[in-house]
Write a structure and sequence with these properties.
Length: 724
Amino acid sequence: MAADRIEALIARMTLEEKAGQLGVFADMVRPFAPDVNPDANVRNAGQVLEQVRAGRVGTLFNGVGAAAGREIQRVAVEESRLGIPVLLAADVIHGMRTVFPIPLGEAASFEPALAERSARATAIEATAAGLHWTFAPAVDIARDQRWGRGAESSGEDVTLGCAFAAARVRGFQGDDLRAHDALLATPKHFAAYGAVAAGLEYAQVDLSPQTLHDVHLAPFRAALAAGARTLMTAFNDINGVPASANRWLLTDLLRGQWAFDGVVVSDYTADMELIAHGYAADERDATAKAFLAGLDLSMQSGFYGAHLPGLVESGQVPMAVLDASVRRLLRLKEAIGLFDDPYRSLDPAREADTAHLPAHDALARDAARRSIVLLKNEGALLPLRRGGQKIALIGPFAQDRDNLEGCWTLFGDKTRYVTLEAGVRAALEAAALLEVVPGCALEAPLDGGIEAAVAAARRADVAVLALGEPQRYSGEAQSRLEIVLPAAQQALAEAVAATGAPLVVLLRNGRALALHGAVRDAAAIAVTWYLGTQTGHAVADVLFGAYSPSARLPVSFPQHSGQQPFFYNRPRSGRPELPGMAEFKSRWREISDAPLYPFGHGLGYARFAYAAPRLNTPQLAWDGTLVVTTRVANTGAVAGEEVVQLYVHDRVASRVRPVRELKAFAKIALAPGEARDVVFHIDRGHLAFSGADGAYRAEPGVFDLWVAPSSATGEPVDFELLPA
Ligand code: BGC
């Protein structure tokens, strides 16, 4: 029935209407991020509606609003020849009106179920605001912290990345795609966008097929297995062929091997950029190369509308290929119920009711505090006391309202944002206990700023320094040369440290940073990323011990910027540095190539002790299951949560294997004195990799296995994988 309806439509469509469906254009009818440049939007609304009326557009993106959305849809359904409804998409990455932590921060929770809940809440708000489709989650693996878009990802690890990719897809889409609050998900950017050389945005990707497969493609598979119906291609080339015109990637692998039958959308003007890449001679050539490679939808260039009809007429593009792409898009519209109810997710009453849901504030606060990583806490300086302790809150982020949300937040309700100062004040017993001094601007000194900060620190029992990167340092096109704090902030930290006041550093950041001097040496350091709407309350919960921090690093913090790309699961060197043996070893002249804080590291206010892991057998049969049981005890004085991490290492293989790889993790809550067995099940699927010949399989032999609180701790046990 549905299929008949789609085939009947395709049979009636002109070439121009078919090509038009495949176009994705900026939604200038509705305000793109309401406070930004409304004049420009109004000026172009008429043209966009005219395109809709003429059946020359299938999808509009980055506008918002139910009432105006209804008007767009009315024009599509009532005034265009075939009445095909448009899809309404947007970049809703980590929250809509309620802003949740940046995806990298949320990944630090090591709680995919939390990401699923925040994605669900985001979908509820986004669909109420007149959207069907989000260009998220970004599932790029970010192994180089200079790259700015790691903030949108889940960090450097594949297992963690896959778990969060799948959870976010499930959360956005919900159980029933036809429900009015289901939001289509789009894993992006396909593929290997995070592997750009030197972390330089839009640069080349030159990569072994094995690493491409095992590292960069894995989260896409996880996202598709979780039900994603669309993918967005990446800007970069892969081994010389742009991803957006890469027939091997988009057709042989995706449609062939993976049997994906959903829709592939280009990134913004990625088809046009084939010309700049020098991969296509002109617009028509770029259109042919992208489309024939398997790119269904073209975003913003207008190339498909302009050139596909001519390419079909000349025989260069077979009509059947065009029909196949149109069919995929119409099926997507059908799958979310648009043909039966073109006005789904366009209900102004629901939009008004959903404008502020207190339950989402509560979730945002919980997600935010669960994302804070406590790196260091010497002398148990934290938690601070709510009374009887004078606090100097110093730094450019103390009162800041403009750097709470992080990159890619187009529609956040700024009136609800809780600053750090507001959160700390709300937690304190008396206002007189807090003195707040900016000390410097984000990137520059302030007149008298350091003097005021030093004086405040002298008057206080503890100085809390709110430092970090301005939020525009991460996100698209924000590659950094050095992943350090701005010099003015470092100078502020040095001056405050020189007072001798005990120092707590609260970092705001969209990537791993290299910490130096007084910041590195502070007694306590917490990574707070960009936490969104509830920032102040969430940080105060951790600062004053209402919540014991439970997040762990999803990216390694190096000692120095020059170590990038740095990731914990690197292949073994033939000359690793060993204790006491540094000459002619794999190290830098100046420092060892170790992290300052490893992947998986993070502290809380409880203490946990691990017993040695017990295995059900020292020999894992080819089709068997290794049951790994580890007793973990809370030996501290307060309740807390621990992220129990299982790593493996393959001792001898046909390719050099990583020193360790995360294969499983579990977050458990333990009361003081409580102990629990944490059980993991490992089979040969966990041990598989792309071998020297490219075949994906496990290789029999001996493996080391750790159950540990980070990627750099624990004592291994070993087991053997027996041959088939
Ligand atoms: C970004 C994508 C985004 C698209 C649409 C591009 O510049 O790379 O991640 O979805 O714009 O806004």
